What we know:
Strand content: 15-25%
Number of helices: 8
Structural class: alpha/beta
Oligomer: single chain
Amino acid sequence: LRSDVEVIPNGIRLEEYLPYRSREKIYDVAYVGRLVPYKGVIEFIEALKQVKTPLRVAVIGDGPLLPHVAKFKDTTHHVVELYRSVDEEEKRRILGRTKVYVSTSKGEGFSISTLEAIALGAYPVVYSAGGYNAATELVTTLSYGRVIDDLRELPASLEEILESTVESADPAALRIYNIAHIVKEYAKTLQECAAL
């Protein structure tokens, strides 16, 4: 990155997410996203098929691959709750009670859903997609979560993480993604540009 380029990430209103964090985790794993091929929902399901321990899974999303997800829900040893359409409050409630959030997207700009999941206390597991999933930057910047380079690593990663005790990300570390901080960064950068 050039020294004269300032990167300012997207942000969220942390104060609207932190209250939904819960110590009572009822979902082991959650997926949030459109049910389309590039979001990796098929790969997510294939990975879950390899996890022997029965899990409670939340899938939030809708799209053309819904029949595939519904079939999996009806035939798997996992308990899968499929939410086709939820409002923001319900999504926060679900993710606030989730242990692990998975992003299997094959291409992502800035993943607001990953940031939201982290803010809500879910541990992120993010597929790097050969560098095309920018959600990996959240994991790297916050030093929180796991990046996998091969989706074949996902089943073992899930089993390992779910067998351990994982704490939620420190809210103080998330401050750099709070919308108030982002606005200040934009203002500072614009003032510096105006001074040129």
